Prior knowledge:
The protein is an alpha/beta fold. The protein folds into two domains: 140 residues, 2-Layer Sandwich (Nucleotidyltransferase, domain 5), CATH 3.30.420; 178 residues, 2-Layer Sandwich (Nucleotidyltransferase, domain 5), CATH 3.30.420. Helix content is 39%, strand content 20%. α6 crosses α8 and α8 packs across α9. The protein is globular. 5'-O-[(R)-(carboxyoxy)(hydroxy)phosphoryl]adenosine binds next to α5 and α6.
Amino acid sequence: xxxxxxxxxxxxxxxxxETAAAVVTAEGRVLSNVVSSxxxxxxxxxxxxxxxxxRNHLLAIGPVVDRAxxxxxxxxxxxxxxxxxxxxxxxxxxxxxxxxxxxxSWLLGIDLVPVxxxxxxxxxxxxxxxxxxxxxxxxxxxxxxAVSGGHTSIYLVRRPGTYLLLGVTLDDAAGEAFDKVARLLxxxxxxxxxxxxxxxxxxxxxxxxxRPLLSGTPRPDFSFSGLKTSVRVHVxxxxxxxxxxxxxxxxxxxxxxxxxxxxxxxxxAAAAHGxxxxxxxxxxxxxxxxxxxxxxxxxxxxxxxxxxxLAYCTDNAAMIAGAGxxxxxxxxxxMMRLEPFASGQLAPPVGA
Length: 352
Ligand code: KG4
Ligand code: ZN
């Protein structure tokens, strides 16, 4: 495509309820990272309403992109590529970011790179200052847990741009389970962070919730819908018996079950595929207990755990710009045929 003098990557993200734009250098240094959250608009419904999300992306996208450029001290002439989330996510929400990126790319003659949202999550740690490394520097290959409201999967990252799917959830994403259990416990949306807070003063051993798919032969896939039901049954039975359960204990016990499963599966997958490093990413990777426990458990297993920096766990565009360094730009004619996709994995399963 066209030659530009620019060196930076402009990232655009609109897959769910955050309108985000960021400018990142070719080396992965984050010059700006602007996130406009719609959480207050959706909170009263207890979940994201797709139509409301699309409409608000439409209002926010222009100002958010302008702000990302301004905060980076950049003009379009400094931008070599525009990286945009193509999917997975809400189709209408994705369309807004994608169309904005296509329009800028077309009119300014800047290369466009479509990015898979999960590639953003699992490579956010490769941004300069993108992670915490309690056991030393990150090495390839690493097993990356992508754990958010929409995804729970483990990928083997052989090198930037080369991924294999090691495991995936068979039903709910872990973040979805956090949000649904929070709702059940009367906590606000999105509930993950509220469960995290409540759990800090609770006893994780108070209630022995199941650890789904953890017993027997190690298997790389997850299931969280049964655990969610188990919390509901527990709460209903207590209510029927006239007992009230301490919220912190319920939150801590549920959280511990999720955290135990996420950690064991990630460490097992790393060991099975010769990876000495694991990375946690995505919104649920912001969970305090998961961060603390995986570091200890990994060390005990001779594996180095790396934690995506909090600012890059929940949805943001710096991770999309960062991943845009590894992808291929689309041609001007292909660009106009580019549509969002609502679902689909980043890479094929190992052995496929
Ligand atoms: O990555 P993200 O912003 O969006 C998706 O791609 O889905 O993740 C949002 C999810 C929500 O389910 C939210 O409840 C969860 O991440 N989350 C947390 C925490 N912070 C956010 N879950 C557990 N503990 C947290 N501290
Ligand atoms: Zn996400």
